[in-house]
Amino acid sequence: PRKGLPVHLRLILVSGKTQDFTFSPNDSATDIAKHVFENWPAGWEEERVSSPSILRLIFQGRFLHGNVTLGALKLPPGRTTVMHLVARETLPEPNSHGQRNREKTTESNCCLLL
Q1: I need a surface site. Which of 2, 9, 44, 58 has the fewest CB within 10 A?
Q2: Whole-prediction pTM value?
Q3: 104 vs 92: CA distance, rounded Å
C-alpha cells in the first residue's frame, strides 16, 4: 500500500510546552506515544514519564484509543495538527449516558472545528 503524506503533529504538554513531530498516516496513537517516549525532547525533562503506555493523545477534546491511526482521523494534509499529550494510567470508560449526550452535541462540535 502506498504511504500517504506525512502528518505533522504539534504535541502540547499540560505544562504548555510544545514540540513538533512528523508521522505517517499509518501510525497509531500507540506508535506515536512510543516514538515520543523514545525521542523525548530535551526541553521536556521535567515531564518525563516512566513508560510510553501511560502517554495519551487528546485530539479535539477526546482521548485517542491506542489503535486509532492518524489516517483514520482525516486530518487536513500538509497542515500541522495540534494534539495534547497527557500521562494517564487509564482512559475514561465511555458509558451509555455519555454516548447519548455526545450525539446531541454533534452540531455544536462542528462549530468548534472552525
Answers
A1: 2
A2: 0.75
A3: 20
